[in-house]
Design goal:
Helix content is 12%, strand content 23%. It has 104 residues and is an alpha+beta fold. The chain has one domain (2-100): Ubiquitin-like (UB roll), CATH 3.10.20. A five-stranded mixed beta sheet has the order 2-1-5-3-4.
Amino acid sequence: MTLLRVVDRDGHEHEVDANTGFTLMENLRDLDYGVGAICGGMCACATCHVYVDPAWLAKLPAAQSDETDLLRDLSTRRENSRLSCQLKFTPDLAGLKVEIAPDE
C-alpha cells in the first residue's frame, strides 16, 4: 500500500493507503467521498474528474486526446484537471495529492 492524499468535496484532506498497479480511479471510487466512475474507467463519462496538486503535474503522463476532449466540456475544468481513470497509480506517485472535482 502506498500513500495517496485526497481532498474531498468538503475540503477535508484524507490519507489513503492506495494500491499501486491500479488506476487512480480504482483507488478513489470505493471511498465514501471518492469519485463516481460511472463508466468503470473507459474514459467515457468524466465522473472521475480530479484536480492534481500542481507540484505533481510534471510527474504524470500527458493526457491523451480522448481525455482532453472530455475535460474540455466540463464547466469545472482547471489547468490541473485530469480523469483519474487515465492515471496509473505507481510507487513513483507515493504521496500524490488530488482533490475530488465537483459533480457535474
